[in-house]
Automatic annotation (TrEMBL):
This is CubicO group peptidase (Beta-lactamase class C family). Keywords: Signal. Pfam families: Beta-lactamase (PF00144), SLH (PF00395). PROSITE patterns: SLH (PS51272). Residues 1-36 form the signal peptide. Transmembrane segments: none annotated. The lineage of its organism: Bacteria, Bacillati, Bacillota, Bacilli, Bacillales. InterPro entries: AmpC-like, Beta-lactam-related, Beta-lactam/transpept-like, SLH_dom. It comes from the Bacteria. SUPFAM superfamilies: beta-lactamase/transpeptidase-like. Residues 490-547, 548-611 form the SLH domain.
Length: 673
């Protein structure tokens, strides 16, 4: 990951923060960085059929110094040809107590792998004729009344393939104690999104969609979701240590989570309490049973939980931006597909604070691989899958041949693309010598055309484009796996911001990504920004779901920015004064703006404090914010630097709109470019 910090501080700290920022902004909610390549042993086998050899291979991988240095505890499970070849624990479920991981009994949160079980429950209802994947879900949700701003009905198929068109897909909640309770029904009603894109049009990873599916299972079965899964999935295939409910008994067996620095983290509840999108708690043994059922046409030891046709439907990753790029199925996706080596692989990954998991199935080889570990930090999953595939299923697919694209066609891909799920994530694409240059959070990449609307980068990762109904390039999918990106139209010119205006590049780029309204002919660049408007810009640029709580600060209730201010208050970005007021219409000073930027970077992204050479006056309460903004160069030509390198930030002056545009644009660039 590339760092472009230009400061007087050491680059190591900044690079570590950049990695943390990128993955946090990907809504993983913890620090995960790719583990350096961990190679397989020399030679390869046809399959992992020998238990002794498979265990030796896995032990060798897990004992690598680069793995041991980051591992707290883990379970690795391999199944092949209806047999459990390996189910083994590594490390500790609790480091302080020296409690080893037991693959049969130690419980782990597997996070979004839960979605595969929820999809299984839906497919069971399909088989019983209780639901139709292609019918409007309003037939199954009674009085839920989700607002649909399109003319396309929302179906279960859309929910299952992350193409719902919802405006928000990641509800934010505040419960934090393991015994806190939040019912599924109440959660679904409290966090209703609106449908703003035609369902089926765009892929955007959708947690709420899977929570809603669990609610539908509960409504149609007449029993709680967690009870349904227990009776119809867990019990039939012998998953005796699995549950969607975090009981006191299960909490006692649950592995302790650790952060990226190795610090023990507190346990936390499922939200909602059954959490169909991410609440499954299970063991390696139980996951082996589920993988075997999926690889054996829905059957495990004589118990049939799905028909073969349902299994095939779930594992068909046909919702994709391009046929050559594995897409999304019902509860399945494709993790690290660049290592598939020409084989069909379906998978599901899961991420929660302190817990990370992945399940891969190779249906044609009747092989399954599962890993879960209880710590943040460097990510073991890609390294494991890459080594596994290199060892057992080496490359069998020939490379793509050269493919020439007319220059005019190549230039039609050029532009700025904004991620559908995370608006702050941008791709800048330009054409160069029958290739495309892409700039994103990870750096600069060169994409070579290999087919119509299909490209490949220098590492073999595929990138695809999709046209809209008018035949224009509209969407892009590359190295951010949880959503497509949309091509943005160029910003319209403001009459008072000519192209040679010193702040024009910042103003027009932010207008292009939607931070500034294009409904007015004038921008008024020298007009002061009020406090409410500035907070709305900060919250808007992060893509955080807005709070639905009533405004706590007395004078914000009637403000057009009330929801933004309340969200920022809950996150700790802003505070009220001693009288419980915020004064949203008052112009914000430059030092107030700097403090809010610092709080955003520190509280949400774990940014370290910075030091800068300052001159001029400022209030003591704003010092840390000003140091941060100045050290990272988040200012425009209004700030002058003395010959000695000292900076007068003009801290007590009002922040003008043109100055705010530089602050916001450079903050965005620093965090994600």
């Amino acid at each position: 990951m590339k760092s472009i910090f230009v400061t007087n501080q050491g680059s190591k700290c900044n690079t570590m923060w950049k990695r943390k920022v990128v993955h946090l902004m990907l809504v993983v909610s913890m620090s995960l960085t790719p583990l350096a390549h961990v190679s397989a042993e020399h030679g390869s086998l046809n399959d992992p059929s020998n238990p002794q050899e498979t265990e030796a291979f896995m032990d060798n991988f897990m004992e690598k110094p680069e793995v041991q240095s980051v591992l707290k505890g883990a379970v690795v499970t391999v199944v092949h040809n209806n047999q459990v070849v390996l189910n083994k624990g590594y490390g500790y479920s609790n480091v302080e107590k020296n409690t080893p991981v037991d693959a049969n009994s130690t419980l782990f949160r597997v996070a979004s792998i839960s979605k595969t079980f929820t999809a299984t429950a839906i497919m069971q209802l399909v088989e019983e004729g209780k639901v139709d994947l292609n019918r409007d879900i309003s037939e199954y949700t009674d009085d839920l009344n989700i607002t649909n701003n399109t003319k396309t009905p929302l179906t279960l198929k859309h929910l299952m393939t992350h193409t719902s068109g919802f405006d928000y897909t990641d509800p934010v909640t505040s419960v934090s104690e393991p015994n806190d309770s939040y019912s599924l029904e109440q959660f679904v009603k409290d966090n209703k999104p609106a449908i703003v894109r035609s369902p089926g049009e765009v892929f955007r990873y959708d947690n709420y969609a899977y929570t809603l599916q669990g609610y539908i299972v509960q409504k149609l079965s007449g029993i709680p979701f967690e009870t349904y899964v227990q009776q119809h999935i867990f019990d039939p295939i012998g998953m005796s240590n699995s549950s969607f409910s975090l009981t006191s008994e299960m909490l006692a067996k649950l592995a302790t989570p650790y952060d990226a620095e190795g610090k023990e983290l507190p346990q936390y509840p499922n939200v909602p309490s059954s959490s169909p999108e991410g609440g499954l708690i299970t063991t390696g043994r139980d996951m082996a049973h589920f993988m075997l059922a999926q690889l054996n046409q829905g059957s495990y030891q004589g118990s049939q939980i799905l028909k073969p046709s349902s299994v095939q439907a779930m594992q068909s990753l046909d919702v994709s931006i391009h046929p050559d790029i594995p897409g999304t199925g019902y509860g399945f996706e494709s993790s690290y597909s660049q290592h598939n080596h020409g084989h069909q692989v379906v998978s599901k990954a899961g991420d929660l604070t302190g817990f990370h998991s992945n399940m891969w199935l190779l249906p044609d080889q009747h092989t399954g691989l599962f890993i879960v570990f209880n710590s943040d930090g460097p990510d073991l999953r890609e390294a494991l899958f890459r080594a596994f595939m290199e060892h057992y299923y080496p490359n069998t697919k020939s490379d793509y041949v050269d493919y020439n694209v007319p220059e005019a066609t190549l230039r039609s891909y050029e532009g700025l693309y904004r991620d559908i799920r995370l608006p702050a994530w941008l791709y800048e694409i330009s054409a160069t010598e029958n290739k495309l240059q892409v700039t994103d959070a990870y750096g600069i990449h060169i994409l070579t055309p290999v087919k119509d609307m299909l490209f490949r980068d220098e590492n073999g990762t595929l990138a695809g484009f999709k046209k809209d109904i008018s035949g224009h390039i509209a969407y892009f999918y590359y190295n951010k796996p949880d959503s497509w990106s949309e091509k943005l139209p160029e910003a319209q010119n403001y009459q008072d911001v000519p192209t040679d205006h010193p702040y024009a590049p910042y103003i027009y780029r932010l207008a292009q990504i939607g931070l500034y309204s294009q409904d007015h002919a004038l921008f008024e660049p020298e007009k002061p920004v009020n406090r409410g408007e500035f907070v709305a810009q900060i919250v808007g640029i992060t893509g955080i779901t807005l709070s639905t709580q009533a405004p706590k600060l007395q004078d914000t209730a009637t403000s057009p920015y009330a929801a933004y201010i309340q969200t920022a208050l809950e996150l700790g970005i802003v505070q009220g004064d001693p009288h419980g007021l915020f004064r949203p219409n008052q112009p914000i000073t430059r030092q107030e703006a700097a403090l809010m930027i610092w709080r955003t970077a520190s509280l949400l992204l774990g940014a370290p404090s910075q030091q800068a050479n300052l001159m001029g006056s400022h209030d003591a309460w704003a010092a840390e914010g000003i140091q941060f903004v100045v050290a990272l160069g988040l200012y425009g030509p209004e700030v002058k630097v003395s010959s000695s390198g000292a900076v007068d930030y003009k801290a007590k002056q009002p922040m003008l709109k043109q100055e705010s545009s530089v602050l916001m644009y450079k903050m965005l660039g620093t965090l994600l470019h």
